[in-house]
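Chain A, query sequence.
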Amino acid sequence: MRSWTLLAILLLTVISCANAGDGAKEVVATTTINLPVDSVTIYQDGLVFIKRMGSMDLTEGTHKFVIDIPENADTSSLLFLVTNSSLERIVYDKMPVYTINVTSTARQSFLLSYLVRNGGYWAPNYYMHLLNDSMLLTANALINVDLKEDLKNVQIRLVAMPEREIPIMMRAPAPTAAKAEELSVYDIAAGAPTGELETLFVFVLENRTDLVAGKSIGLPLFEDLAPAWRVYTWDAYYNPDGPANEEIRANNTADHPWPNGNVQVFRDGEYVTTLSMPYTAKGANASLSLGPSADLKLSKKLMDYNITENVVSFGNGTAKVTTENWTYQLEIKSNTDKEIDLEVKDTIPMEAKVIDVSPEPSEMTATLLKWNLSVAPREEMKIRYAYRVVTVETIDR
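Chain A, predicted structure.
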């Protein structure tokens, strides 16, 4: 059993009711406690959740516990539980005082938890080794915690979340009259997530370790082999003359997300570049941009435009009907000796109706045309499409 320290100031059984009518209860003892840290849960935005645990022999009756916590602890998040007891009251101060009624004389277990704002951070450091149709992704966790004390043999939990996702942290409610023995303090999370909770995921590191205040450490996080491929993308609406952007895409087939962080890319053991890994949920695809590429020559051309106007009568009025036809050609030329996967997309007006397109797009919505193409080495190809817009304007007589 792990050793821990309880600083006890026992004031012996001295407080008795001076007035039987005031309803005051005799306090068996007042004890200042400083429990050892059992686990540390670190969020990427600087939030740290601390859980302290221990045990002590207590006699039946009313006890006061003075909670010794660090100055940077958020006292509003404080949760203190003792087995076989019920809460009488809490006095919030620099060192909060809990009055608790212990229902039986025995060795009782303690749990103390709280939050520390800006108490530490962590980030993954990735190494991506590109293979033919896959990649080996190795992640180490870079951890820095400053809780104004060195921590020994603690369990570390690392919370991953999408960027800008802020967890909702609520003040932990105090136990009601229900006896604390109905709960095992070793099973109470006290606000710390233990798995996926909506967009949160917790990495529980296998081995306990020491944390030195203000010092950074690196610990292994995971190693995944995942499908990966190279893709070129061209948005012809915003970049009619290119260039195409080159991307590395990988499918997260692991049972955990890939948190956002920097990734060093290697090919055949040689360093290639450093990219930014976006937060990627399990089952999703990660897209890592390599930037503009000269492997393709691209252009979008307006091949034809015509407009006709007609005045038509209806009921007691007339209207001008305007019909406009646009024809575009997208030209693609490969400058490389390798086969290329190319995604092409173009935007059309909401009111447009496509009247001709070749080849058929792989995806078409009210405003988007998208093609997934395989471009052979040095190949030249063309995409041609036309759309029509009809507008009707009422003419006053």
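The domain at 296-395 is CATH 2.60.40 (Immunoglobulin-like). The longest strand covers residues 216-235.
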